[in-house]
Each structure stands twice: as C-alpha cells, then as structure tokens.
Design brief:
Blueprint lengths: L9 E8 L10 E8 L10 H12 L8 E4 L6 H8 L3 E6 L4 H13 L5 E4 L16 E5 L8 H14 L4 E6 L5 H10 L3 E7 L6 H6 L6 E6 L1
Parallel strand pairs: 3-4, 3-6, 4-5, 6-7
Antiparallel strand pairs: 1-2, 7-9, 8-9
This protein binds S-adenosylmethionine.
Protein name: Calmodulin-lysine N-methyltransferase protein
EC number: 2.1.1.60
Keywords: Methyltransferase, Transferase
Length: 221
C-alpha cells in the first residue's frame, strides 16, 4: 500500500463525546490521524464532526446495529458508532490506498475493531453484494458533483439490498440543491432534513466550525 505523501504534515486530533463533549467532561474520545491541510480523505471535514456528534446524540439507536460508512476518509462518525457498540464497516474509494491505510491506523490507535473495505461508488465489485447495513453513514460525500450519480447509485443499491435501512448524511451545499433534488427523484429516494448542523452542536464544537455550514439529512428508499 502507498503511504501518506511526505510533503504533508500529519497530526493527531482528539474529538470528545459526552454531555459537554469537552476535555474536562466527556464519555470517550476518538483520536484521528489527519494531515494539516484540507485533503479529500485524509482530513476531518466539518461535516464529519457534525455527523459524529449526531451519531453520539442518537447513541441508543446504534448499539448492535450494522453500519456502513461511505467515503469515510478519516472515519469519525463510523468510529463513534463503533464505540457505541455498532458493527461497523468503514469504506472509501478502493483506488485510494493511502486513505484505506490511514483508516486502518486510526482503528488501531483507537483500539476499535472495524472492517475496512475499498468501495468505489458506481462500481459493482463482489463485496458490495454482501453488505446489508441497517444504517449507512456519509459525511461530505456530496463534494464533487461529477461523483453524485455514482454515489446515489451505490446508496440506492444498498438501501434496496437492506430493506428498512436509511442513509444519514451531512453535506456542505457547494453546488446548489437542484442537482441533489434531481438525482433523488431519478433514483426514487425520499429525503427528510434531520437538523441544521449548528442547531444541536455543543457550543465548544460549533465555535470551532464557524462559517462552515452543513445540514444533516436522512434518505430512504
Ligand atoms: C470531502 S471527503 C469527506 C471525507 C470524510 N467523510 C469527512 O467528512 O471527513 C470525500 C470522501 O469521499 C471519498 N470518495 C470520493 N469519490 C469517491 C468514489 N467515487 N468512491 C468512493 N469514495 C469516494 C473520498 O476519498 C473522500 O474520503
């Protein structure tokens, strides 16, 4: 496997979860190895912090549940689900070995036993057919609009392959809602807005994300 590009400095960021989610008052924390510049799958995007907090706040729903995270990158939401007792498969683009390798390191660092799987959206490799998640997570996976159709194809397949499942995503509206709405109709998905990113975040986390707006949505077939 390829390793992280040498020119980019990596760091470990610590993310607290609990009543106050602060260093002094938390239930647990997750350490994430990331690089210090924004990078597609090697950086904790704000949507990931928001989705991870949503998972924590919905914690009673995650114990013993099967979860697949798509485009997981640094994987914070999936790791919170694993910490809460979910059976988690973290996936990212099978063509980006450096991202998958980093996911493995992060799981080891946090002593969490998640399966890591290369899964490229819109590609129909054999392991995809064995996935039957109850919850599909995806933080900031609506990023490049040229990938949206492939993402929706994979999400729709997983929702159909696992009746009763839902896709919970946070996204940063970079390209307008119209394309997303068009694709939802095309793929026959129903969507409901769950929360505005900042409405439920502890103050300490919201202030660290100021100016980066995201919304949490729930998709079903
Ligand atoms: C903006 S990053 C978000 C990463 C992470 N979920 C977060 O919020 O920190 C988008 C992620 O989608 C993954 N991705 C992009 N295109 C993909 C594709 N065609 N198939 C699978 N994963 C893809 C990238 O590797 C990257 O990890």
């Amino acid at each position: 496997m390829a390793s992280m590009p040498k020119a980019q400095m990596s760091t470990v960021s610590r993310h607290y979860f609990g009543v106050e989610s602060s260093e002094d008052n938390h239930s647990f924390y997750i350490d994430i190895i990331e690089i210090m510049q924004e990078d597609y799958g090697l950086y904790v995007w704000p949507c990931s912090v928001i989705l991870a907090e949503y998972v924590w706040q919905q914690r009673l729903r995650f114990s013993g549940v099967s979860v697949v995270e798509l485009g997981a990158g640094t994987s914070l939401p999936g790791l919170v689900a694993a910490k809460l007792g979910a059976n988690v498969i973290l996936t990212d683009n099978s063509h980006r070995t450096e991202v998958l390798e980093n996911m493995e390191k992060i799981c080891k660092l946090n002593k969490l036993d998640c399966r890591i799987l290369g899964l490229a959206w819109g590609e129909w490799d054999a392991p995809l057919f064995d996935l039957h998640p109850q919850v599909i997570l995806g933080a900031d996976v609506l990023y490049e609009n040229t990938d949206f159709d492939d993402l929706f194809a994979t999400v729709t397949f997983l929702l159909q392959n696992s009746p009763g499942s839902v896709f919970i995503t946070t996204y940063h509206n970079r390209s307008g809602h119209h394309l997303i709405e068009f694709l939802m109709a095309k793929w026959g998905l129903r969507c409901s807005k769950l929360v505005d990113g900042f409405s439920f975040m502890p103050q300490i986390k919201a202030s660290s994300l100021q100016g980066k707006h995201s919304t949490c949505r729930n998709y079903a077939k």
